[in-house]
Request: fold
Amino acid sequence: MIYDGLMMKNKWLLLFGMVFCFTTISFAQPRFIYNPVFFARADQPIEISIRIDGNVSASDEMRIYFRTKGNESYDYIVSEKYGEEFRGSIPAQSASVGKIEYFFTFLYGGNIYTLPESNPYYEPFEIQITPVEPGNTITVRQPVSPLVAKKPRNSGNLLSLSTEKYLILSPENEERLMGEDVVIAVSLFFETGEIDIYKTKLLLDGRQVKPELSENLITYVPPHISEGRHEVDLNFIRSDGKEYEPVRRRFQVMSARRGGMVTLPFVSGASGNIYAESRSESYSGIRQNTNLTGGRLRGKTGFLHYGTRFYITSLENKNFQPRNRFLFWVEAKFFNLYGGDTSPRFSELILYGKRIRGFNVQLNLKLINFDFVMGQTYRSVKGISLNQLIIDPATQDTSYYNPATGDTVQNPISRYGTYDQNLLGLKVTFGRRRGSHLGFSAIKVKDDINSIQSGLKPKDNVVVGSDLQIAMFSNRFRWKTEGAFSILTDDISGGSLTKSNIDSLTGES
Reply:
Protein backbone atom coordinates (compact mmCIF):
# COMPACT_ATOMS: atom_id res chain seq x y z
CA MET A 1 0.00 0.00 0.00
CA ILE A 2 1.49 3.34 -1.03
CA TYR A 3 0.27 6.50 0.65
CA ASP A 4 1.72 9.05 -1.77
CA GLY A 5 0.90 12.70 -1.09
CA LEU A 6 0.45 11.95 2.63
CA MET A 7 2.83 12.11 5.60
CA MET A 8 3.00 8.35 6.48
CA LYS A 9 5.75 6.22 8.01
CA ASN A 10 5.94 2.65 9.30
CA LYS A 11 7.44 1.75 12.66
CA TRP A 12 6.04 -1.16 14.63
CA LEU A 13 2.32 -0.75 15.23
CA LEU A 14 2.17 2.95 16.02
CA LEU A 15 4.35 5.84 14.94
CA PHE A 16 4.60 9.30 16.37
CA GLY A 17 6.60 11.60 14.12
CA MET A 18 7.38 15.28 14.02
CA VAL A 19 8.99 16.83 10.99
CA PHE A 20 9.88 20.46 10.44
CA CYS A 21 11.44 21.79 7.31
CA PHE A 22 12.30 24.96 5.45
CA THR A 23 11.38 24.37 1.87
CA THR A 24 12.76 25.66 -1.39
CA ILE A 25 11.65 23.38 -4.22
CA SER A 26 12.76 23.28 -7.83
CA PHE A 27 11.54 20.72 -10.34
CA ALA A 28 12.78 19.98 -13.81
CA GLN A 29 10.81 21.86 -16.42
CA PRO A 30 8.82 19.95 -19.07
CA ARG A 31 9.02 21.25 -22.61
CA PHE A 32 6.66 24.20 -22.98
CA ILE A 33 5.93 25.62 -26.43
CA TYR A 34 4.84 29.19 -25.87
CA ASN A 35 4.99 32.56 -27.61
CA PRO A 36 4.61 35.19 -24.86
CA VAL A 37 1.93 37.87 -25.10
CA PHE A 38 3.49 41.31 -24.69
CA PHE A 39 0.62 43.65 -25.55
CA ALA A 40 -3.14 43.62 -24.99
CA ARG A 41 -6.05 45.99 -25.43
CA ALA A 42 -7.67 47.63 -22.43
CA ASP A 43 -11.15 46.48 -21.40
CA GLN A 44 -10.88 43.23 -23.37
CA PRO A 45 -10.04 39.70 -22.15
CA ILE A 46 -6.45 38.58 -22.74
CA GLU A 47 -6.34 35.23 -24.53
CA ILE A 48 -3.39 33.00 -23.56
CA SER A 49 -2.48 29.67 -25.18
CA ILE A 50 0.41 27.31 -24.42
CA ARG A 51 1.32 23.86 -25.73
CA ILE A 52 3.00 20.97 -23.91
CA ASP A 53 5.29 18.70 -25.90
CA GLY A 54 4.40 15.22 -24.63
CA ASN A 55 1.55 13.05 -23.44
CA VAL A 56 -1.01 15.13 -21.57
CA SER A 57 -3.88 13.49 -19.70
CA ALA A 58 -7.19 14.96 -18.63
CA SER A 59 -6.04 15.01 -15.00
CA ASP A 60 -3.17 17.40 -15.79
CA GLU A 61 -3.93 21.00 -14.95
CA MET A 62 -2.50 24.28 -16.21
CA ARG A 63 -3.05 27.43 -14.17
CA ILE A 64 -2.30 31.00 -15.21
CA TYR A 65 -1.44 33.23 -12.26
CA PHE A 66 -1.73 36.97 -12.89
CA ARG A 67 -1.68 40.28 -11.05
CA THR A 68 -1.43 43.99 -11.70
CA LYS A 69 2.22 44.97 -11.57
CA GLY A 70 3.02 46.20 -8.07
CA ASN A 71 0.28 44.20 -6.34
CA GLU A 72 1.24 41.78 -3.58
CA SER A 73 -0.74 38.67 -4.51
CA TYR A 74 -1.72 36.78 -7.64
CA ASP A 75 -5.11 35.60 -8.83
CA TYR A 76 -5.35 32.59 -11.10
CA ILE A 77 -7.49 30.94 -13.73
CA VAL A 78 -7.58 27.27 -14.73
CA SER A 79 -6.95 27.00 -18.47
CA GLU A 80 -8.98 24.83 -20.83
CA LYS A 81 -7.32 21.79 -22.45
CA TYR A 82 -7.47 21.11 -26.20
CA GLY A 83 -5.34 18.02 -26.88
CA GLU A 84 -1.82 19.12 -25.93
CA GLU A 85 -2.78 22.82 -25.90
CA PHE A 86 -4.09 24.80 -22.94
CA ARG A 87 -6.06 28.03 -23.40
CA GLY A 88 -7.09 30.59 -20.83
CA SER A 89 -8.50 34.10 -20.72
CA ILE A 90 -7.20 36.70 -18.26
CA PRO A 91 -10.09 39.05 -17.35
CA ALA A 92 -10.24 42.41 -19.10
CA GLN A 93 -8.11 45.13 -17.51
CA SER A 94 -8.57 48.90 -17.51
CA ALA A 95 -6.06 51.19 -19.19
CA SER A 96 -4.96 52.55 -15.80
CA VAL A 97 -3.49 49.15 -14.89
CA GLY A 98 -0.45 49.70 -17.10
CA LYS A 99 1.07 46.23 -16.96
CA ILE A 100 -0.07 42.73 -16.02
CA GLU A 101 2.38 40.14 -14.67
CA TYR A 102 1.68 36.44 -15.21
CA PHE A 103 3.21 32.97 -15.08
CA PHE A 104 2.13 29.34 -15.53
CA THR A 105 1.96 26.36 -13.17
CA PHE A 106 1.50 22.87 -14.61
CA LEU A 107 0.39 19.97 -12.41
CA TYR A 108 1.72 16.84 -14.13
CA GLY A 109 2.20 13.38 -12.65
CA GLY A 110 1.93 14.69 -9.08
CA ASN A 111 4.62 17.35 -9.63
CA ILE A 112 4.28 21.07 -10.24
CA TYR A 113 6.26 22.76 -13.01
CA THR A 114 6.40 26.47 -13.79
CA LEU A 115 7.02 28.81 -16.69
CA PRO A 116 9.20 30.82 -16.38
CA GLU A 117 11.16 27.96 -14.85
CA SER A 118 13.33 30.18 -12.64
CA ASN A 119 11.75 32.43 -10.02
CA PRO A 120 8.33 32.81 -11.71
CA TYR A 121 6.70 34.60 -8.75
CA TYR A 122 9.14 37.50 -8.86
CA GLU A 123 10.29 37.44 -12.50
CA PRO A 124 7.08 36.67 -14.42
CA PHE A 125 6.04 37.54 -17.96
CA GLU A 126 4.64 41.04 -18.51
CA ILE A 127 1.80 42.33 -20.69
CA GLN A 128 1.53 46.01 -21.59
CA ILE A 129 -2.12 47.16 -21.49
CA THR A 130 -2.81 49.52 -24.40
CA PRO A 131 -5.60 52.08 -23.87
CA VAL A 132 -8.54 52.12 -26.25
CA GLU A 133 -8.69 55.31 -28.29
CA PRO A 134 -12.25 56.72 -28.55
CA GLY A 135 -13.75 56.02 -31.94
CA ASN A 136 -10.60 54.25 -33.12
CA THR A 137 -12.31 51.42 -34.97
CA ILE A 138 -10.53 50.32 -38.12
CA THR A 139 -12.79 49.88 -41.15
CA VAL A 140 -12.36 47.55 -44.08
CA ARG A 141 -10.49 49.00 -47.05
CA GLN A 142 -11.17 48.11 -50.64
CA PRO A 143 -8.85 45.36 -51.90
CA VAL A 144 -5.52 46.69 -53.10
CA SER A 145 -3.17 44.75 -55.33
CA PRO A 146 -0.11 43.69 -53.33
CA LEU A 147 2.09 44.35 -56.36
CA VAL A 148 1.17 48.04 -56.63
CA ALA A 149 2.64 50.39 -54.05
CA LYS A 150 1.11 53.82 -53.66
CA LYS A 151 3.58 56.61 -54.26
CA PRO A 152 3.59 59.23 -51.51
CA ARG A 153 3.22 62.85 -52.38
CA ASN A 154 6.38 64.88 -52.97
CA SER A 155 8.28 61.58 -53.08
CA GLY A 156 11.17 63.33 -54.72
CA ASN A 157 11.99 65.07 -51.44
CA LEU A 158 12.06 61.84 -49.41
CA LEU A 159 15.26 60.15 -48.30
CA SER A 160 15.93 56.52 -49.14
CA LEU A 161 15.90 54.16 -46.16
CA SER A 162 18.09 51.09 -45.87
CA THR A 163 16.35 47.90 -44.72
CA GLU A 164 19.29 47.41 -42.32
CA LYS A 165 17.83 50.21 -40.20
CA TYR A 166 14.66 48.33 -39.24
CA LEU A 167 13.07 44.89 -39.00
CA ILE A 168 9.31 44.39 -39.14
CA LEU A 169 8.55 41.70 -36.58
CA SER A 170 4.82 41.63 -37.18
CA PRO A 171 2.84 41.31 -39.36
CA GLU A 172 4.44 39.47 -42.26
CA ASN A 173 3.63 40.92 -45.66
CA GLU A 174 0.28 39.56 -46.91
CA GLU A 175 -0.08 37.55 -43.70
CA ARG A 176 -3.52 36.30 -42.73
CA LEU A 177 -4.38 36.86 -39.08
CA MET A 178 -7.24 36.67 -36.64
CA GLY A 179 -8.28 40.13 -35.48
CA GLU A 180 -7.25 39.36 -31.93
CA ASP A 181 -3.74 38.39 -33.11
CA VAL A 182 -2.91 41.62 -34.92
CA VAL A 183 0.16 43.31 -33.44
CA ILE A 184 2.31 45.83 -35.30
CA ALA A 185 5.89 45.56 -34.07
CA VAL A 186 9.03 47.04 -35.63
CA SER A 187 12.56 46.68 -34.27
CA LEU A 188 14.88 49.69 -34.89
CA PHE A 189 18.65 49.83 -35.51
CA PHE A 190 19.20 53.57 -36.01
CA GLU A 191 22.20 55.29 -34.50
CA THR A 192 21.45 57.43 -31.45
CA GLY A 193 20.08 60.78 -32.60
CA GLU A 194 19.73 59.67 -36.22
CA ILE A 195 15.93 60.02 -36.10
CA ASP A 196 13.49 61.85 -33.86
CA ILE A 197 11.60 58.83 -32.56
CA TYR A 198 8.76 60.93 -31.14
CA LYS A 199 7.99 62.42 -34.56
CA THR A 200 7.59 58.96 -36.09
CA LYS A 201 4.18 58.48 -37.72
CA LEU A 202 2.29 55.19 -37.89
CA LEU A 203 -0.72 55.05 -40.19
CA LEU A 204 -3.19 52.18 -40.33
CA ASP A 205 -5.35 52.31 -43.46
CA GLY A 206 -4.32 55.93 -43.92
CA ARG A 207 -5.33 56.98 -40.41
CA GLN A 208 -2.66 58.05 -37.94
CA VAL A 209 -2.61 56.06 -34.70
CA LYS A 210 -0.58 56.36 -31.51
CA PRO A 211 1.94 53.53 -31.06
CA GLU A 212 4.24 52.76 -28.14
CA LEU A 213 7.61 54.32 -29.00
CA SER A 214 11.13 53.62 -27.77
CA GLU A 215 14.62 53.93 -29.24
CA ASN A 216 14.65 50.23 -30.16
CA LEU A 217 11.04 49.21 -30.68
CA ILE A 218 7.71 50.47 -32.03
CA THR A 219 4.55 48.57 -31.16
CA TYR A 220 0.84 49.05 -31.68
CA VAL A 221 -2.16 46.83 -30.91
CA PRO A 222 -5.33 47.96 -32.72
CA PRO A 223 -8.18 48.14 -30.20
CA HIS A 224 -10.69 47.11 -32.88
CA ILE A 225 -10.08 45.90 -36.40
CA SER A 226 -12.52 44.54 -38.95
CA GLU A 227 -12.18 41.63 -41.35
CA GLY A 228 -10.56 42.26 -44.72
CA ARG A 229 -7.34 43.75 -46.08
CA HIS A 230 -5.38 46.42 -44.22
CA GLU A 231 -2.30 48.51 -44.83
CA VAL A 232 0.34 49.90 -42.48
CA ASP A 233 2.61 52.88 -43.26
CA LEU A 234 5.51 53.88 -41.02
CA ASN A 235 7.20 57.27 -41.55
CA PHE A 236 10.56 58.09 -39.93
CA ILE A 237 11.79 61.68 -39.60
CA ARG A 238 15.42 62.66 -39.07
CA SER A 239 16.52 65.02 -36.35
CA ASP A 240 16.99 67.78 -38.96
CA GLY A 241 13.35 67.40 -40.07
CA LYS A 242 13.93 65.48 -43.30
CA GLU A 243 11.60 62.55 -43.92
CA TYR A 244 12.44 59.02 -45.06
CA GLU A 245 10.47 56.98 -47.56
CA PRO A 246 7.56 55.27 -45.79
CA VAL A 247 7.79 51.62 -44.82
CA ARG A 248 4.68 49.77 -46.00
CA ARG A 249 3.22 46.43 -45.05
CA ARG A 250 -0.11 44.79 -46.00
CA PHE A 251 -2.00 42.03 -44.19
CA GLN A 252 -5.45 40.47 -44.06
CA VAL A 253 -7.74 39.91 -41.08
CA MET A 254 -9.72 36.68 -41.17
CA SER A 255 -12.87 35.70 -39.32
CA ALA A 256 -12.53 36.08 -35.57
CA ARG A 257 -14.36 32.79 -34.97
CA ARG A 258 -11.98 30.40 -33.21
CA GLY A 259 -12.01 26.65 -33.71
CA GLY A 260 -12.41 24.11 -30.97
CA MET A 261 -15.02 25.89 -28.86
CA VAL A 262 -18.71 25.25 -29.44
CA THR A 263 -21.40 27.58 -28.13
CA LEU A 264 -24.28 25.63 -26.66
CA PRO A 265 -27.55 27.32 -27.66
CA PHE A 266 -29.56 25.44 -25.03
CA VAL A 267 -27.33 26.66 -22.17
CA SER A 268 -27.12 30.44 -21.91
CA GLY A 269 -23.57 31.76 -21.60
CA ALA A 270 -21.97 28.31 -21.86
CA SER A 271 -19.37 26.95 -24.26
CA GLY A 272 -17.35 23.77 -24.44
CA ASN A 273 -15.55 21.23 -26.55
CA ILE A 274 -15.48 17.47 -27.07
CA TYR A 275 -12.62 15.51 -28.58
CA ALA A 276 -11.98 11.86 -29.46
CA GLU A 277 -8.77 10.00 -30.18
CA SER A 278 -7.79 6.52 -31.27
CA ARG A 279 -4.28 5.08 -30.99
CA SER A 280 -2.65 1.88 -32.16
CA GLU A 281 0.79 1.06 -30.77
CA SER A 282 3.07 -1.90 -31.40
CA TYR A 283 6.08 -2.69 -29.24
CA SER A 284 8.11 -5.92 -29.51
CA GLY A 285 5.30 -7.48 -31.48
CA ILE A 286 2.68 -6.61 -28.86
CA ARG A 287 -0.09 -4.37 -30.20
CA GLN A 288 -2.29 -2.21 -28.04
CA ASN A 289 -5.28 -0.23 -29.29
CA THR A 290 -6.52 2.66 -27.18
CA ASN A 291 -9.63 4.77 -27.64
CA LEU A 292 -10.37 7.84 -25.57
CA THR A 293 -12.72 10.77 -25.49
CA GLY A 294 -12.95 13.87 -23.38
CA GLY A 295 -14.58 17.24 -23.14
CA ARG A 296 -15.13 20.42 -21.21
CA LEU A 297 -17.97 22.80 -20.54
CA ARG A 298 -17.80 26.15 -18.83
CA GLY A 299 -20.17 29.04 -18.39
CA LYS A 300 -21.50 31.76 -16.14
CA THR A 301 -24.90 32.53 -14.74
CA GLY A 302 -25.32 35.52 -12.48
CA PHE A 303 -22.49 35.56 -9.95
CA LEU A 304 -21.67 31.86 -10.45
CA HIS A 305 -19.03 30.38 -12.72
CA TYR A 306 -19.52 26.69 -13.46
CA GLY A 307 -17.96 23.99 -15.54
CA THR A 308 -17.14 20.36 -16.00
CA ARG A 309 -14.52 18.23 -17.70
CA PHE A 310 -14.26 14.51 -18.33
CA TYR A 311 -11.84 11.97 -19.78
CA ILE A 312 -12.90 8.42 -20.68
CA THR A 313 -10.45 5.79 -21.94
CA SER A 314 -10.73 2.19 -23.07
CA LEU A 315 -7.90 1.40 -20.63
CA GLU A 316 -10.31 1.67 -17.69
CA ASN A 317 -10.24 -1.66 -15.83
CA LYS A 318 -11.76 -2.64 -12.50
CA ASN A 319 -8.57 -4.56 -11.68
CA PHE A 320 -6.61 -1.30 -11.52
CA GLN A 321 -7.05 2.16 -10.05
CA PRO A 322 -9.34 4.52 -12.00
CA ARG A 323 -8.08 5.83 -15.31
CA ASN A 324 -11.22 7.69 -16.25
CA ARG A 325 -11.47 11.22 -14.88
CA PHE A 326 -14.39 13.56 -14.32
CA LEU A 327 -14.83 16.84 -12.48
CA PHE A 328 -17.49 19.50 -12.06
CA TRP A 329 -17.17 22.80 -10.26
CA VAL A 330 -19.05 25.89 -9.16
CA GLU A 331 -17.07 29.02 -8.27
CA ALA A 332 -18.14 32.31 -6.73
CA LYS A 333 -16.48 35.16 -4.87
CA PHE A 334 -16.71 33.59 -1.43
CA PHE A 335 -16.83 29.85 -2.11
CA ASN A 336 -15.72 27.18 -4.55
CA LEU A 337 -17.20 23.68 -4.86
CA TYR A 338 -15.45 20.86 -6.74
CA GLY A 339 -16.84 17.36 -7.20
CA GLY A 340 -15.33 14.31 -8.86
CA ASP A 341 -11.59 13.79 -9.29
CA THR A 342 -10.19 16.70 -7.30
CA SER A 343 -6.60 17.57 -6.32
CA PRO A 344 -6.72 19.60 -3.08
CA ARG A 345 -3.59 21.18 -1.64
CA PHE A 346 -3.24 21.70 2.10
CA SER A 347 0.53 21.70 2.60
CA GLU A 348 3.49 19.88 1.08
CA LEU A 349 3.90 17.66 4.15
CA ILE A 350 0.25 16.66 4.55
CA LEU A 351 -1.76 16.75 1.33
CA TYR A 352 -0.58 18.31 -1.92
CA GLY A 353 -2.14 17.40 -5.25
CA LYS A 354 -3.26 13.86 -4.41
CA ARG A 355 -6.14 12.69 -6.62
CA ILE A 356 -9.26 12.28 -4.49
CA ARG A 357 -12.60 11.19 -5.92
CA GLY A 358 -15.10 13.07 -3.83
CA PHE A 359 -15.81 16.69 -2.86
CA ASN A 360 -13.63 19.69 -2.11
CA VAL A 361 -15.22 22.85 -0.69
CA GLN A 362 -13.39 26.15 -0.25
CA LEU A 363 -14.81 29.04 1.77
CA ASN A 364 -13.00 32.34 1.19
CA LEU A 365 -13.63 35.02 3.82
CA LYS A 366 -10.46 37.06 3.17
CA LEU A 367 -8.93 37.00 6.65
CA ILE A 368 -10.02 33.43 7.39
CA ASN A 369 -10.42 30.65 4.83
CA PHE A 370 -11.65 27.07 5.09
CA ASP A 371 -10.84 24.02 2.96
CA PHE A 372 -12.81 20.81 3.42
CA VAL A 373 -12.22 17.61 1.47
CA MET A 374 -13.88 14.20 1.62
CA GLY A 375 -13.51 11.30 -0.76
CA GLN A 376 -11.76 8.15 -1.89
CA THR A 377 -8.02 8.02 -2.57
CA TYR A 378 -7.94 4.36 -3.68
CA ARG A 379 -10.74 2.09 -4.80
CA SER A 380 -10.87 -1.58 -3.89
CA VAL A 381 -9.23 -4.06 -6.23
CA LYS A 382 -9.75 -7.74 -5.54
CA GLY A 383 -6.75 -9.98 -5.06
CA ILE A 384 -6.12 -13.11 -7.11
CA SER A 385 -6.25 -16.46 -5.30
CA LEU A 386 -4.88 -19.73 -6.68
CA ASN A 387 -7.39 -22.55 -6.33
CA GLN A 388 -5.48 -25.39 -8.04
CA LEU A 389 -3.86 -27.28 -5.13
CA ILE A 390 -0.99 -29.69 -5.81
CA ILE A 391 0.03 -32.36 -3.22
CA ASP A 392 3.42 -34.05 -3.49
CA PRO A 393 2.66 -37.82 -3.12
CA ALA A 394 6.08 -38.49 -1.58
CA THR A 395 6.27 -35.70 1.00
CA GLN A 396 2.63 -34.68 1.16
CA ASP A 397 3.80 -31.05 0.78
CA THR A 398 1.21 -28.72 -0.73
CA SER A 399 1.75 -26.09 -3.41
CA TYR A 400 -0.36 -24.07 -5.81
CA TYR A 401 -0.28 -23.79 -9.58
CA ASN A 402 -0.30 -20.32 -11.15
CA PRO A 403 -1.88 -20.61 -14.63
CA ALA A 404 -0.71 -17.11 -15.61
CA THR A 405 2.99 -17.98 -15.27
CA GLY A 406 3.01 -21.78 -15.19
CA ASP A 407 4.92 -21.73 -11.89
CA THR A 408 4.26 -23.74 -8.74
CA VAL A 409 4.24 -21.54 -5.63
CA GLN A 410 3.71 -22.00 -1.91
CA ASN A 411 1.53 -18.91 -1.38
CA PRO A 412 -2.12 -19.42 -2.38
CA ILE A 413 -2.48 -15.71 -3.12
CA SER A 414 -1.03 -14.59 -6.46
CA ARG A 415 -1.80 -10.92 -5.96
CA TYR A 416 -2.97 -9.13 -2.85
CA GLY A 417 -5.85 -6.74 -3.25
CA THR A 418 -6.15 -3.05 -2.52
CA TYR A 419 -8.56 -1.74 0.10
CA ASP A 420 -10.97 1.10 -0.40
CA GLN A 421 -9.16 4.04 1.17
CA ASN A 422 -11.14 7.09 2.32
CA LEU A 423 -9.90 10.52 3.31
CA LEU A 424 -11.44 13.30 5.39
CA GLY A 425 -9.60 16.61 5.78
CA LEU A 426 -9.98 20.18 6.99
CA LYS A 427 -7.70 23.20 6.77
CA VAL A 428 -8.20 26.62 8.36
CA THR A 429 -6.06 29.48 7.07
CA PHE A 430 -5.72 32.87 8.74
CA GLY A 431 -4.57 35.50 6.25
CA ARG A 432 -4.17 35.49 2.48
CA ARG A 433 -3.90 32.12 0.75
CA ARG A 434 -1.10 33.32 -1.53
CA GLY A 435 0.32 35.92 0.84
CA SER A 436 1.19 35.99 4.54
CA HIS A 437 -0.84 33.39 6.41
CA LEU A 438 -0.96 30.83 9.21
CA GLY A 439 -2.69 27.55 8.45
CA PHE A 440 -3.76 24.54 10.51
CA SER A 441 -4.54 21.22 8.81
CA ALA A 442 -5.91 17.85 9.89
CA ILE A 443 -6.66 14.76 7.81
CA LYS A 444 -7.75 11.21 8.54
CA VAL A 445 -7.09 8.38 6.08
CA LYS A 446 -8.42 4.87 6.67
CA ASP A 447 -8.61 1.60 4.74
CA ASP A 448 -12.00 -0.11 4.63
CA ILE A 449 -11.27 -3.62 5.92
CA ASN A 450 -14.59 -4.94 4.58
CA SER A 451 -13.98 -3.85 0.97
CA ILE A 452 -11.92 -6.93 -0.03
CA GLN A 453 -11.20 -10.40 1.37
CA SER A 454 -7.46 -10.76 0.82
CA GLY A 455 -5.17 -7.78 1.32
CA LEU A 456 -2.04 -6.74 3.13
CA LYS A 457 -2.19 -4.85 6.40
CA PRO A 458 -4.99 -2.26 6.30
CA LYS A 459 -3.93 1.05 7.83
CA ASP A 460 -5.41 4.00 9.69
CA ASN A 461 -3.61 7.33 9.75
CA VAL A 462 -4.24 10.73 11.33
CA VAL A 463 -2.04 13.69 10.39
CA VAL A 464 -2.17 17.19 11.87
CA GLY A 465 0.11 20.08 11.10
CA SER A 466 0.55 23.76 10.46
CA ASP A 467 2.22 25.99 7.92
CA LEU A 468 3.40 29.58 8.25
CA GLN A 469 4.26 31.91 5.41
CA ILE A 470 5.49 35.49 5.67
CA ALA A 471 5.46 37.50 2.44
CA MET A 472 6.78 41.04 2.18
CA PHE A 473 7.84 43.61 -0.39
CA SER A 474 5.14 42.66 -2.93
CA ASN A 475 6.01 38.97 -2.55
CA ARG A 476 9.66 39.56 -3.43
CA PHE A 477 10.56 38.07 -0.07
CA ARG A 478 8.95 34.89 1.26
CA TRP A 479 9.74 32.82 4.31
CA LYS A 480 7.85 29.56 4.76
CA THR A 481 7.94 26.71 7.26
CA GLU A 482 5.73 23.69 7.85
CA GLY A 483 5.30 21.08 10.53
CA ALA A 484 3.37 17.81 10.65
CA PHE A 485 2.55 15.21 13.31
CA SER A 486 1.46 11.72 12.25
CA ILE A 487 -0.24 8.88 14.14
CA LEU A 488 -0.24 5.70 12.05
CA THR A 489 -1.86 2.40 12.91
CA ASP A 490 0.03 -0.07 10.76
CA ASP A 491 -2.54 -2.89 10.91
CA ILE A 492 -6.24 -2.47 11.73
CA SER A 493 -7.33 -5.91 10.54
CA GLY A 494 -8.36 -6.60 14.14
CA GLY A 495 -10.15 -3.25 14.47
CA SER A 496 -9.16 0.37 14.95
CA LEU A 497 -6.67 1.34 17.63
CA THR A 498 -8.33 2.07 20.99
CA LYS A 499 -7.25 4.32 23.84
CA SER A 500 -6.20 1.28 25.90
CA ASN A 501 -3.94 0.15 23.04
CA ILE A 502 -2.28 3.57 22.99
CA ASP A 503 -1.85 3.54 26.78
CA SER A 504 -0.23 0.10 26.66
CA LEU A 505 2.25 1.26 24.02
CA THR A 506 3.17 4.42 25.89
CA GLY A 507 3.43 2.65 29.26
CA GLU A 508 0.53 4.53 30.83
CA SER A 509 -2.07 2.72 32.92
Observations:
- The mean pLDDT is 78.
- The radius of gyration is 31 Å.
- The first strand starts at residue 14 and ends at 22.
- The chain is about 0% helix and 50% strand.
